[in-house]
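Field guide to reading this record: the first block holds the primary sequence, the second block holds the structure written as discrete tokens, and the final block holds curator observations. Each block starts with its own label. This record concerns Actin-depolymerizing factor 2, catalogued under organism Coffea arabica.

BLOCK 1 — SEQUENCE
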Amino acid sequence: MANAASGMAVHDDCKLKFLELKAKRTYRFIIYKIEEKQKQVIVEKLGEPANGYEEFTANLPADECRYAVYDYDFMTEENVPKSRIFFIAWSPDTSKVRSKMIYASSKDRFKRELDGIQVELQATDPTEIGLDVIKSRAGGAA
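BLOCK 2 — STRUCTURE
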């Protein structure tokens, strides 16, 4: 039987939209979903640049796994505007075991397709991707 990760295709759109977020700041966030029947990762939702962090977390389903990318803007202590691109592996406790396994086994390969990720977070409940966590990880990586 083929390994779930090796059999997972990544739709071209996943990379194209990520490049637009990274280079042109066209989007604030991208939420990716694995289509199990087609065995591929697709773009599920795009966040406009004006969308805030609350809007992003509101779009993560409470009981299904997702991958997501978030472009976080912040000011350093020297008042210099900066941004960090976060990769978030969202795997809520309430999601199906099979789904968790597929997302976990495909994550590294998918993440490699997205060149420019600066911080990775894994979360099983909303507190693990609270804005306070994002802030501390963004600042800590500088």
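BLOCK 3 — OBSERVATIONS
The radius of gyration is 15 Å.
The first helix runs from residue 12 to 24.
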